[in-house]
Amino acid sequence: MNYILNIETATKNCSVSLSKDGITVVCKEIAELGYSHAEKLHLFIEEVINEAGISNSDLNAIAVSQGPGSYTGLRIGVSAAKGLSYALKIPLIAVDTLESLAQQVVAKDGLIIPMIDARRMEVYSAVFNCKKEKIRQVQAQIINEESFADFSEKVYFIGDSNEKVKSVVSKSNFVFLENHFYPSAKEMSRISYNKFQEKDFVDVAYFEPYYLKDFLFAK
């Protein structure tokens, strides 16, 4: 059995999960209080390990959301992940935040565009096909009436920018999913396990979050 602790702090959602062989066993998260990462993260880490009935020494790897997202949130999550990885002498895995957000979408066709709010009319976005394969890399883009106009197939938008984007762009093939706002450590489990099997690790000493921009600060 392979246990991986997954940490997600790129947005308002402070989320921690424990997975066993790629399946989420326990998850603790909270977004309603805004950016409460500094107060909740280490508590959630302790709780998921205790509820799973294991100890820190049973962990095989630590996975952390690498961004893009909140500068402060990412710093908190990555610092905690690095500390655990170094102290326990286990690998550190970096997971694309938008890739894990895209996992929440169930679609048999079309495209998936996960988005994270930046500032004003700007978002961080990427494009995935229905198999959750990335077909356009992460970008910071300013939304206008021409955004995503080239897509003729069905497009599923997910993230905390949906209301903002929907007010500007509207096409019959656009589907703005409701009640799916933030990336969660629950959706990191399969991704981090695949990376673990492939030994796709990052260097604890030199790894830095993927900020994309440095202006999105937690408030």
What does this protein structure show overall?
The protein has 219 residues and is of the alpha/beta class. 25% of the residues lie in helices and 29% in strands. It contains five helices and ten strands, in the order E-E-E-H-E-H-E-H-E-E-E-E-H-E-H. The chain has helices spanning 37-51, 71-88, 97-102, 162-166, 188-197, and strands at residues 3-8, 14-20, 23-30, 59-65, 92-95, 111-117, 122-129, 134-142, 155-159, 174-176. A five-stranded mixed beta sheet has the order 3-2-1-4-5, with helices on both faces. Strand 7 and strand 8 (134-142) form a beta hairpin. Helix 1 crosses helix 2. The longest helix is centred in the middle third of the chain and has 18 residues, at 71-88. The model is unreliable at 215-219 (pLDDT under 50).
Quickly describe the structure:
With 219 residues, this protein is of the alpha/beta class. The protein is built from 5 helices and 10 strands; from the N terminus they run E-E-E-H-E-H-E-H-E-E-E-E-H-E-H. Helix content is 25%, strand content 29%.
